[in-house]
Amino acid sequence: MKISYNWLKEYIDLKGLSANEVGEILTEIGLECEAVTPLGGGPEIDERVVVGFVVSAQKHPNADKLTLCQVDTGDGQLLQIVCGAPNVAAGQKVPVALHGATLRPYGGEVIKIKKGKIRGEVSEGMICAEDELGISADHSGIMVLDNAFELGASLASYIQSDADYILEIGLTPNRADAMSHYGVARDLYAALAHRKKKVELSLPSVSGFKVSNTQLTIDIEIADRKACKRYAGVSIMGVKVGPSPEWLQKRLTSIGLNPINNVVDVTNFVLHECGHPLHAFDADRIAGRKIVVRKAEEGEKFVTLDGVERTLSAEDLMICDAEKPLVLAGIYGGLYSGVNDQTTNVFLESAVFDTVHIRRSARRHGLQTDASYRYERGVDPEMTIYALKRAANLIREVAGGEISMNIHDEYPSPIAPHMVDANLQRIRKFIGKKDISNGDIKSILASLEIKILAEIEDTLRLEVPAYRVDVQREADVVEEILRIYGLDAVEPPRKIKFAWHQPGHDHIKVSKKADISKLLVARGYNETMNNSLTSAESYNEENKTQLVELINPLSNELAVLRGTMLYGLLENIRFNIYRQVPNLRLFEFGKTYKRLNGHYAEEEFLALVLTGSYWTDTWLEAEKNSTFYHLLNDVEAILQHFKLYNVNKSYSQSNKGEGITIQHDGEHLLTLLSISGLILKKFDIGQPVYYAEINWNALLRAAGQVKTTFTPLPKFPEVVRDLALVIDRTTTYQALEQAVLKLNIKELRNITLFDVYEGKNLPEGKKSYAMRFTLRHEEKTLHDQEIDQIMQRILTSLQTECEAMLR
């Protein structure tokens, strides 16, 4: 944000403070000044460089090339100054830098003037040359001034009457109150008042506002009182639209704005003066002499000032007349309702709109203006009428005309100041300075226009002005006091106490994450990190009831906390597919959030997605697409890393897709899904996607229950037997596996599925599974008879439980 130093001085007395010094103070109190840039008119000259008169000039007793001067600076006392310039002489008027002045030489480093001794003689200032003042590179001698210069006057008032400096302030979004020259002046006032400087803060008077007649009265109706908190207007008849006067144009160009015409320039001037947006209408184009603030019709067309026809949403707030929309409220004017060279009658708007409505509309239409930028962050409702009167007075001054209606102010539900309780002892504790007095705290609050309504047992009941939207709680009050009191004024403690955190469960979680990340990267995955704020549009109506919604979202796309990791990863896939990268393996650690039975649930997950080719064409092998079982293999690698071998798998189906869930000792660990076509179509993804969502905390709990035991190397051989089974097509491998495991055969070491067949030579509705069983006894070699008995038990169980038949 650009602030003009000269413009700033209209609201606060900055005598004795250069633009650079103002920038330093602003940075100290939290309005970071990133640069101070000269803007025409000459160099920056300190106010403590004044016009002096050389009463006498004598040779220095201890130096041939120095002169001892007695100089009158208009305060009734003579200063002794040692000067080395060859042209200094009695009777001259010269620039004198007094003790404490800061000089910025032409092409040199900054000089701070101090009293001192030069070759044994006291020197109480400095008589300056042009280069020492930054005026030019001339160092041939001191600068001799015209006799018309007033004795004791600041040289800056003569040399740089047109000079200005632009302060570039890196304003944080929460400081909506400082988005104007007066807003910055308010903060400066608090800082200077705390430094015991006598300064005054004031806005220009609007007492000259006078209604001449009521011939152009415009009626106002607020149809949507949630989106429009306040709307006021006034009309002016007989204006003459044309170029703005030089002073007004200079003010606007100094901060980078282009002058348009005198009426529009006034609205921009007032916006940057007091921070309140205004809009000027051609009053003759307001049909029915009525303003209606309402929502747009869905699909309604509207041409904005830039000539673009925009399709409106039912959520867009519009300023309309009796027939048509005129302005996209708080954002952008219409092409046909604004002030132009033929305008003679003007209607001025001053309003307060809901921040969320303006933000959403601005994002929806890809617009950001000076007005929307402020409305999105919050404007001062108490500035509404002042800004209107100020603009009306200025328009009469620069464009003529008469105020032709009483101010119509629709304010159905006045916005009350915010109340905060702040305890004096806690304030001292949080600041870290026990000796800050109650008087200092109260004076800082007063300088910030925060009223103390009551004080009960060291607790202050505070009324925070409506324009301070960032001060909502005690901690915010502490921050306000601290930034004005000064961070540098708080001494760091001699001893710092801290608690030693012994590595525990959190450390294990971090360590395990690093291990699994390495494992997945080794298997070809890339890690991604998505925003936990997302849009509600991806969720179906059933799941929307569980979403955690933000009270004041930045946009519709960031309105809720994610209830699943899936949609962020699908957006990653879509983003890459659009850029010809269809083969993806991604993983993400993150949290999901849900509202269940009035309570909020927060869980941590590891999510994986697999899509595209699992490997591409090589000389050895042809391209192979990723499948559900590739992802299952990767998930099993994670389970094996945690030594979780005995897990239960079951079929799963949801609106996201179908697949399996895996449990351990009755606790849900993870879900693997083949994502449904409906969801993929919503994300414009035309290839299969496989997804795994692992409950990270449940996985760590299960891993923590695993006991590591020593098993000696087997002394006896393993035996492998295969069974080819014909089963119903709906029977799962999980069912077959469970039918065998429930027998608790101690010799059974492993079961694998090595072939699946559906087709010819099988009855309708049937399929064939080929299963391999590995057997071994710990204490002896198994004989054929024992092996046959075990295999018969297995086959009988499969026949009984799953209606399986030998093929």
Automatic annotation (TrEMBL):
<dbReference type="GO" id="GO:0000287">
    <property type="term" value="F:magnesium ion binding"/>
</dbReference>
<keyword id="KW-0436">Ligase</keyword>
<dbReference type="InterPro" id="IPR020825">
    <property type="entry name" value="Phe-tRNA_synthase-like_B3/B4"/>
</dbReference>
<feature type="binding site">
    <location>
        <position position="470"/>
    </location>
    <ligand>
        <name>Mg(2+)</name>
    </ligand>
</feature>
<dbReference type="InterPro" id="IPR012340">
    <property type="entry name" value="NA-bd_OB-fold"/>
</dbReference>
<feature type="domain" description="TRNA-binding">
    <location>
        <begin position="43"/>
        <end position="156"/>
    </location>
</feature>
<dbReference type="InterPro" id="IPR002547">
    <property type="entry name" value="tRNA-bd_dom"/>
</dbReference>
<dbReference type="Pfam" id="PF03484">
    <property type="entry name" value="B5"/>
</dbReference>
<comment type="subunit">
    <text>Tetramer of two alpha and two beta subunits.</text>
</comment>
<dbReference type="InterPro" id="IPR005147">
    <property type="entry name" value="tRNA_synthase_B5-dom"/>
</dbReference>
<feature type="binding site">
    <location>
        <position position="480"/>
    </location>
    <ligand>
        <name>Mg(2+)</name>
    </ligand>
</feature>
<keyword id="KW-0820">tRNA-binding</keyword>
<dbReference type="Pfam" id="PF01588">
    <property type="entry name" value="tRNA_bind"/>
</dbReference>
<dbReference type="GO" id="GO:0006432">
    <property type="term" value="P:phenylalanyl-tRNA aminoacylation"/>
</dbReference>
<dbReference type="InterPro" id="IPR005146">
    <property type="entry name" value="B3/B4_tRNA-bd"/>
</dbReference>
<keyword id="KW-0067">ATP-binding</keyword>
<dbReference type="GO" id="GO:0005524">
    <property type="term" value="F:ATP binding"/>
</dbReference>
<dbReference type="GO" id="GO:0000049">
    <property type="term" value="F:tRNA binding"/>
</dbReference>
<dbReference type="Pfam" id="PF17759">
    <property type="entry name" value="tRNA_synthFbeta"/>
</dbReference>
<keyword id="KW-0479">Metal-binding</keyword>
<keyword id="KW-0648">Protein biosynthesis</keyword>
<dbReference type="InterPro" id="IPR005121">
    <property type="entry name" value="Fdx_antiC-bd"/>
</dbReference>
<dbReference type="InterPro" id="IPR036690">
    <property type="entry name" value="Fdx_antiC-bd_sf"/>
</dbReference>
<dbReference type="InterPro" id="IPR004532">
    <property type="entry name" value="Phe-tRNA-ligase_IIc_bsu_bact"/>
</dbReference>
<comment type="similarity">
    <text>Belongs to the phenylalanyl-tRNA synthetase beta subunit family. Type 1 subfamily.</text>
</comment>
<dbReference type="InterPro" id="IPR033714">
    <property type="entry name" value="tRNA_bind_bactPheRS"/>
</dbReference>
<feature type="binding site">
    <location>
        <position position="479"/>
    </location>
    <ligand>
        <name>Mg(2+)</name>
    </ligand>
</feature>
<keyword id="KW-0694">RNA-binding</keyword>
<keyword id="KW-0547">Nucleotide-binding</keyword>
<dbReference type="GO" id="GO:0004826">
    <property type="term" value="F:phenylalanine-tRNA ligase activity"/>
</dbReference>
<dbReference type="Pfam" id="PF03483">
    <property type="entry name" value="B3_4"/>
</dbReference>
<protein>
    <recommendedName>
        <fullName>Phenylalanine--tRNA ligase beta subunit</fullName>
        <ecNumber>6.1.1.20</ecNumber>
    </recommendedName>
</protein>
<dbReference type="InterPro" id="IPR041616">
    <property type="entry name" value="PheRS_beta_core"/>
</dbReference>
<dbReference type="GO" id="GO:0009328">
    <property type="term" value="C:phenylalanine-tRNA ligase complex"/>
</dbReference>
<dbReference type="InterPro" id="IPR009061">
    <property type="entry name" value="DNA-bd_dom_put_sf"/>
</dbReference>
<feature type="domain" description="FDX-ACB">
    <location>
        <begin position="714"/>
        <end position="807"/>
    </location>
</feature>
<keyword id="KW-0460">Magnesium</keyword>
<keyword id="KW-0030">Aminoacyl-tRNA synthetase</keyword>
<feature type="binding site">
    <location>
        <position position="476"/>
    </location>
    <ligand>
        <name>Mg(2+)</name>
    </ligand>
</feature>
<feature type="domain" description="B5">
    <location>
        <begin position="415"/>
        <end position="492"/>
    </location>
</feature>
<dbReference type="Pfam" id="PF03147">
    <property type="entry name" value="FDX-ACB"/>
</dbReference>
<dbReference type="InterPro" id="IPR045864">
    <property type="entry name" value="aa-tRNA-synth_II/BPL/LPL"/>
</dbReference>
